[in-house]
Amino acid sequence: MSSLADEPCEACTSDDEPLTSEEYESYLDDLRTDVWEVVDDHHLHAHYEFEDFRDALEFTYEIGELAEEEWHHPDLALAWGEVEVEMWTHKIDGLHKTDFVMAARMDRIYEGYDPAE
Ligand SMILES: C[C@H](O)[C@H](O)[C@H]1CNC2=NC(N)=NC(=O)C2=N1
């Protein structure tokens, strides 16, 4: 589905500047609009829904494994039938392309859990 999910996660350095809304706007085209929003031009927020707690737990674990593989980590909140995600690049205290790549990868993983599918 999303070409962004096929892109590599770029290593970011503290010299990188956070993306402006003009710079990140096009990346949103590759993310689920029913899931993701940008908050204060600073971070991405997602609300994923699941059949039950176990699906939410297993999704959370998969996201954790992805984060370890890419060495880029979201904040995760797990509840019955729900997972909240906050994704930004701490090193630059803002948004980097890698945050959008990670979000697209999460959407791809979610395809296997989406109760609406
Ligand atoms: C030491 C530092 O935490 C590491 O370089 C990585 C780990 N995972 C990370 N994850 C996120 N979201 N932002 C970072 O800046 C980041 N840095």
Automatic annotation (TrEMBL):
<protein>
    <recommendedName>
        <fullName>Putative pterin-4-alpha-carbinolamine dehydratase</fullName>
        <ecNumber>4.2.1.96</ecNumber>
    </recommendedName>
</protein>
<keyword id="KW-0456">Lyase</keyword>
<dbReference type="GO" id="GO:0008124">
    <property type="term" value="F:4-alpha-hydroxytetrahydrobiopterin dehydratase activity"/>
</dbReference>
<dbReference type="InterPro" id="IPR001533">
    <property type="entry name" value="Pterin_deHydtase"/>
</dbReference>
<dbReference type="InterPro" id="IPR036428">
    <property type="entry name" value="PCD_sf"/>
</dbReference>
<comment type="similarity">
    <text>Belongs to the pterin-4-alpha-carbinolamine dehydratase family.</text>
</comment>
<feature type="region of interest" description="Disordered">
    <location>
        <begin position="1"/>
        <end position="20"/>
    </location>
</feature>
<dbReference type="Pfam" id="PF01329">
    <property type="entry name" value="Pterin_4a"/>
</dbReference>
<feature type="compositionally biased region" description="Acidic residues">
    <location>
        <begin position="7"/>
        <end position="20"/>
    </location>
</feature>
<dbReference type="GO" id="GO:0006729">
    <property type="term" value="P:tetrahydrobiopterin biosynthetic process"/>
</dbReference>
<dbReference type="InterPro" id="IPR050376">
    <property type="entry name" value="Pterin-4-alpha-carb_dehyd"/>
</dbReference>
